[in-house]
Amino acid sequence: MIKIKRKLLYSTILVICFVLIASYIKNLFTKNMKVKAMGNEHIPILMYHHVVKDPSKTNLITVTDKRFEEDMEYLKKNGYNTISFKELIDYKEGRAKLPGKPIIITFDDGYDNNYKYAYPILKKNNMKATIFVVGSRLGIIKYNNDPRYSYFSWEQAKEMFESGLVEIQPHTYDLHYYKESPNHGEGVLSKTKESKKSHYDRFTKDTDKIIKLIKEKVGSESYVYAYPYGKYNSTNEEVLKKLNFKVTLTTKSKYANISDGLYELKRINVPSNKKLKDLLF
User: Could you tell me one molecular function GO term of this UniProt entry (predicted)?
Assistant: First the structure.
């Protein structure tokens, strides 16, 4: 009787082990196949905002300089290659190939801490990034008397651009507002009861202004547009395509699927409470 019970116990243990091993192999195979199938048609575009020294100031859009450096080291150690949007456009238009495991690093708004803390780390590691600037705010210290909202200058923007590592691209000239007012909608959206023509003309005027400023102050063309708060509509897309923008970006936190083009691409927000390895496949 004891021998029978032992045999049943051993058999049960063997079955459990077999199931666990089979499950592990299946998950590993599925994950590898998923990554392989994605290839260069699914690219992670990372989205940062603030980079600070003080760990107590971190939140969903703010990381420390130490954390940012750890992220860059993680990417290098795991075979990722940072690319510019110019390289992505060239790839999609058949003029170039992409390196293995391409990834794009972005910053929104143009905060001075990007220049102070992130830019030196990018230079140290020879890694590329794109910063989307709110044109009307560059050079302003303590915007609305808030020390969190200080912006680098146009001279600093030019310095970063001329390094060959940083693209400077539009995040509106002066439409980066979360709440609607008589002068603007929520971000680049239309105002309540605003006609499509009025919205079209107003957004075109703002975009023309930031395009000219970036060209004049930095020396760069504008070809990528990041929507404030990730909010936009068909009128915004229509205007940007007419102005020859090649890429538009949202804030939806997923890999960017470039198989159907480069408009309305998703980005992966990098919060302080999640490790980068947990955000990437």
Answer: hydrolase activity, acting on carbon-nitrogen (but not peptide) bonds
Residue type, 241: K
Please give the single-letter amino acid code of residue 256.
Answer: A
DSSP state for residue 54 in the 8-state scheme: -
What are the structure tokens assigned to 144, written together? 């609305």
Q: What is the mean pLDDT of residues 79-92?
A: 98
Structure tokens at 211: 């395009």
SS3 257: strand
- Tokens encoding 257: 């699927």
Tokens, residue 151: 């912006």
The Cα–Cα gap between 24 and 18 comes to: 10
Selection from 100, 196, 97, 118 nearest residue 160 by Cα: 118
The two three-digit tokens of residue 135, written as one number: 């044109």
Provide the 8-state DSSP code for 111.
B
pLDDT tens-digit profile of 123-144? 999 999 999 999 999 999 999 9
- What's the rounded Cα separation, in Å, for the pair 93 and 80? 22
Which element (helix H / strand E) includes 236? helix 234-242
What sign has the CA pseudo-torsion 18, 22, 24, 25? positive
Asked whether the beta carbons of 194 and 185 are under 8 A apart, the reply is: yes
> Residue type for 37, please?
A
| Helix then strand then coil, % of the chain, to nearest 5 | 45, 20, 35
Can you tell me the distance from the alpha carbon of 90 to that of 65, in angstroms, rounded to the nearest whole number? 31
Q: pTM for the complete prediction?
A: 0.86
